[in-house]
């Protein structure tokens, strides 16, 4: 399979995710990326991700639409479109949709997202 360097979200792989539904666009499988991955995530109204942390992965979320809260460690922050969120290695976090519309955000992971680097309480 030829690796894609430019991919539209409609071409991404839709998968269930700890944060709701993910559209994976940049990763080892699709683009051959070895250092980072990129996905669009959707959380249904009044739903939340599972509280978790990563031992090897840093993440950045960027809120596109909807509103909610993100919990990082013991701190809770209100988030809405335009907020960028940094999630350090080893820190528990979760994102909560507090609205009546889908919460949509993009996520960049470095290194490439690995399901085996997700640890829950």
Description:
The chain is mainly beta. It has a domain at 34-115: Jelly Rolls, CATH 2.60.120. It is built from one helix and eleven strands. The strands form three sheets. The chain has a six-stranded antiparallel β-sheet. It is globular. The termini are far apart.
How does the SSE layout of this entry go?
Elements: E1 13-17, E2 20-26, H1 28-31, E3 37-43, E4 52-53, E5 58-65, E6 68-72, E7 75-79, E8 84-87, E9 93-97, E10 103-110, E11 119-120
Antiparallel strand pairs: 1-2, 2-3, 3-10, 4-11, 5-8, 5-10, 6-7, 6-9
Estimate what percentage of residues fall within beta strands.
over 45%
Q: Which stretches are low in confidence, meaning pLDDT under 50 for 5 or more residues running?
A: none
Mean pLDDT across all amino acids:
95
Q: Helix-strand pattern, N to C? A: EEHEEEEEEEEE
What structural category arises from helix and sheet content?
mainly beta
CATH topology of the domain at 34-115: Jelly Rolls
Cα radius of gyration in angstroms: 14 Å
The second-level CATH architecture of the domain at 34-115 is Sandwich
CATH class of the domain at 34-115: Mainly Beta
Largest sheet: 6 strands, antiparallel
Which of globular, elongated, flat, extended, rod-shaped describes the shape? globular
- Continuous helix count: 1
Helical percent range? under 10%
CATH superfamily of the domain at 34-115: Jelly Rolls
Instruction: Describe the strand arrangement of the main beta sheet, using strand numbers.
Output: 1-2-3-10-5-8
Cα(first) to Cα(last) distance is 38 Å
Please give the number of β-strands: 11
């Amino acid at each position: 399979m030829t690796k894609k360097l430019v991919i539209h979200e409609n071409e991404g792989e839709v998968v269930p995710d700890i944060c709701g539904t993910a559209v994976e666009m940049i990763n080892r499988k699709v683009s051959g990326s070895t250092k980072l991955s990129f996905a669009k995530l959707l959380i249904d109204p009044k739903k939340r991700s599972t509280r978790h942390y990563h031992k090897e992965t840093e993440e950045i979320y960027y809120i596109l639409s909807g509103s909610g809260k993100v919990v990082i460690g013991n701190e809770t922050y209100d988030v809405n479109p335009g907020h960028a969120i940094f999630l350090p290695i080893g820190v528990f976090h979760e994102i909560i949709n507090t609205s009546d519309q889908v919460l949509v955000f993009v996520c960049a992971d470095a290194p490439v997202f690995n399901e085996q680097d997700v640890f829950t309480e």
